[in-house]
Amino acid sequence: VLQAEHVSYRKGTWINQSYEERGFNKSNGVEGWTLYDGADGTRAFRINVTDLDRLQDISDSSTANFTVVAKDGSSDTWEMEVYHDDTGAVSAVTGSAYVAEITDGNENTRYCSVGDGVSSFWINVSAGTFAGEECRALRFGEGLSTIKKVEYDNGDNINGTYRLMAAKGRSAISPGSYNTTGSEPPIRTTAIYNATVHVTYDSGDLYYETDRTAEPGRDDE
Predict the structure, then answer these.
(1) Structural domain boundaries in the chain
(2) pLDDT tens digits, one per residue of 96-125
(3) What is residue 65's DSSP assignment?
(4) How far apart are CA 111 and CA 91, in angstroms?
(5) H/E element holding 44?
(6) CA pair distance 101, 77, nearest whole angstrom
(7) Under 8 Å CB-to-CB from 107, ≥6 apart: which residues?
(8) Is the pTM value of this prediction over 0.70?
(9) What are phi and psi of 197, to 5 degrees?
(10) What are phi and psi of 134, to 5 degrees?
């Protein structure tokens, strides 16, 4: 006989921006904003960059690269800037390229890149892939104890989609930063970050029991 009993679950929230032609601004258009704060973790974070002309050129005198900032509640930060290297100065490929510049919580800076010629590209932040290829520089939250806070800076200098899950209930995430479900994104929707069940199996000859935890989105890591 196989039995499963619910033990516990942790509330979560999907943060979702699904309009390819939209920037990564707050719902009211503000370019620098906090997606959430006070979470117990973050995962399944993916970005699809669809309009490459929106990315800042490295030769531009004004530094306003789109940046993801993750914080752990202390002074440590993890940052990822996304931009166009039109000079060929920093990318790992020959010539100009699209770049993610990552600075981890230990202040180490490394790069991921893909050459010009692509029409769009994915950044799987949680899985550590850039334009479909593994990039060892991309380790989301490396050097942080946990990811409690995620911010965007210069959200107007990128167009595309993104999705990520926060280990925090929807009602506890500022509604003023998002539109309502069914409206134009960005939106927040209720999710389960993880759930634990107690499983027992008794065949008469064999008895086995264990706790198992299911984590939606874990396959993206």
Answers:
(1) 2-205+214-220
(2) 999 999 999 999 999 999 999 999 999 999
(3) -
(4) 7
(5) strand 42-49
(6) 14
(7) none
(8) yes
(9) -125, 150
(10) -65, 135
The DSSP string of 127-155 is TTEETTEE-TT--TTTT-S---EEEEESG
Q: How far is CA 142 from CA 57, 58, 71, 109, in A?
A: 27, 25, 11, 11
Q: Which residue numbers in the chain have pLDDT < 50?
A: none
What type of residue sits at position 132? G
Q: In what order do the strands lie in the sheet with 133-134?
A: 133-134, 129-130, 121-124, 42-49, 160-166, 2-17, 187-202, 207-214
Question: Which has the closest alpha carbon to 195: 8, 3, 4, 2?
Answer: 8
d(CA 176, CA 188): 11
**Within a 10 A sphere around the Cβ of 179, how many other Cβ atoms?**
14
Q: What single letter denotes the amino acid at residue 57? A: D
Q: DSSP secondary-structure letter at 178?
A: S
Cβ partners under 8 Å of residue 10, min gap 6:
40, 167, 192, 193, 194, 195
User: Which of the 8 DSSP states describes residue 13?
Assistant: E
What residues contact 172, with CB distance under 8 A and at least 6 apart?
38
Q: How far apart are CA 189 and CA 183, in angstroms?
A: 12
